[in-house]
Specification:
FAD/NAD(P)-binding domain, Enolase-like, domain 1, eight-stranded mixed sheet, 14 helices, alpha/beta, 31% helix
Length: 466
């Protein structure tokens, strides 16, 4: 039985490779199959290269504003060839790290495309043109997602782009149009505006970042408009025509027609599961009409011995860290342990735009809809000493709590470095802390985290610096 694996993982993104490592730690003989590169979409086409581009944008913006603090910087410009070199080095460094972790944990890796031919057999078409078949006691499907588009708007990779394409543009566009103002659209709008593009955002829903608290969305839209980003919400893209200069977009808003001229159109209308061609139905794994794999609360599919996690099982939240945590729990379930269920109300959501957005849990509106008597605390970064020092005073911290016991129901932050500030709230939620504990905890001065402290104090009617 030496040729039988305890687990074969299909997909080596942050869900798949983390699951493989946890399986190895638990003593399971594990193999992983990846049709592209170890690290998956997140590392090579999503989270990491996108944030590298956003870092370039942040550095460029800092250089332009350096004279405000007495540092003279002349002739700020962006060299996209050098930017791509930096992005590729960053990705490759992390890619080598994932490969090392596979070797360290003795996970067998197969570069190729997997297909289930039975519940205990995985056929692999290897990248070198050969084929092999892996026998296994268990399977973890972690194939992730791909960019979606509209039926009437095919992606050509030249002018009509997905997020994968826009990362490798050879130039900073003169004018970039973006369809969709969710996380992906907001991040690319922010990045290219800082790099020097004129940016137009088109969103069919009433506000940007529609999944966030309404006050957060309003603050982000206000900041975008102030930076020169054109924002059209409750707007519908009617048609896209090619022109000699690029593209002409016809947009309808409030019953009126708008014409947007752009070099490129980034389509950021969400992502779809990668579940076709895996042989799922052949082995009894059910999918919903959208292609998402059906699982129970332990990530078990409808086929015995097969689990699934990450983007391939749910439309929300499509987050790398969620896939990782789900994979750990799925593998621990396979090993006969009793993993604690993942609390999706304590999952961090981050948008790395400028200003940054970070949140978890219920918005104020959602808490009211669930029947809570809500107590809300707010504190603006304009009154925070460190934010004044950084000259980045935009945004606020908002805490949503249960009025009766002070239970933290959600936190919603917009402003400087808030993606790093959210962990205090996540930990508090995880250990069932209340706003009383946050208020009692001593926060260093001057720090941005003081805004979290003051928001908790505000919820208790005791805010100090307002």
């Amino acid at each position: 039985m030496d040729d039988v694996y305890d687990l074969v993982v299909i997909g080596a993104g942050p869900g798949g490779y983390v699951g493989a490592i946890r399986a190895a730690q638990l003593g399971l003989r594990t193999a992983i199959v990846e049709r592209d590169k170890l690290g998956g979409t997140c590392l090579h086409y999503g989270c990491i290269p996108t944030k590298a581009l956003l870092h370039v944008a942040e550095v460029a913006e800092s250089a332009r504003t350096a004279p405000q603090v007495g540092v003279r910087v002349d002739g700020v410009s962006v060299d996209m060839a050098a930017v791509h070199g930096y992005r590729e080095r960053t990705v490759e460094t992390l890619h080598r790290g994932v490969a090392y972790l596979m070797r360290k944990n003795k996970v067998a890796t197969f570069a190729g495309t997997a297909r289930l031919v039975a519940r205990d057999r995985v056929h692999v078409s290897l990248q070198d043109g050969s084929e092999t078949e892996l026998r296994t006691r268990r399977v973890l499907v972690a194939t992730g997602s791909r960019p979606r588009t509209l039926p009437s708007l095919p992606l050509d990779g030249q002018r009509v782009l997905a997020s994968d394409h826009v990362l490798t543009l050879p130039e900073v566009p003169r004018h970039l149009a973006i369809l969709g103002a969710g996380v992906i659209g907001a991040e690319f709008a922010s990045a290219f505006a800082a790099l020097g593009s004129q940016v137009t955002l088109v969103e069919i829903l009433p506000r940007v970042l529609p999944g966030e608290d309404e006050e957060v969305s309003a603050a982000v839209e206000k900041a975008f408009v102030r930076r020169g980003i054109q924002v059209h919400t409750q707007a519908t893209l009617k048609s896209v025509e090619r022109t000699a200069a690029g593209l002409q977009l016809s947009v309808e808003k409030d019953g009126k027609a708008l014409v947007v001229e752009a070099d490129y159109l980034l389509v950021a209308v969400g992502r779809a599961p990668v579940s076709d061609g895996l042989g799922l139905e052949d082995v009894g794994v059910e999918r919903d009409p959208q292609g998402f794999v059906r699982t129970d609360e332990r990530y078990r599919t409808t086929a015995p011995g097969i689990w699934a996690i990450g983007d391939v099982i749910h439309a929300q939240p499509m987050l790398a860290h969620v896939a990782s945590e789900e994979a750990v729990r799925a593998v621990e379930d396979m090993a006969g342990e009793e993993p604690a269920p993942l609390d999706y109300d304590a999952v961090p959501r981050c948008t790395y735009s400028s200003p940054e957005v970070a949140s978890f849990g219920l918005t104020e509106a959602q808490a009211l809809e669930r029947g809570y008597e809500v107590r809300v605390g707010r504190f603006p970064f304009s009154a925070n000493s460190k934010a004044v020092i950084l000259q980045d005073r935009e945004g606020f911290v908002k805490v949503v709590a249960d009025a009766k016991h002070g239970e933290i129901l959600g936190m919603h932050l917009v402003g400087p470095r808030v993606t790093e500030l959210l962990s205090e709230g996540i930990l508090g939620k995880s250990v069932e802390a209340t706003i009383h504990e946050v208020a009692l905890a001593v926060h260093a001065h001057p720090t941005l985290t003081e805004a979290v402290h003051e928001a908790a104090l505000d919820a208790l009617g005791r805010v100090v610096h307002l």
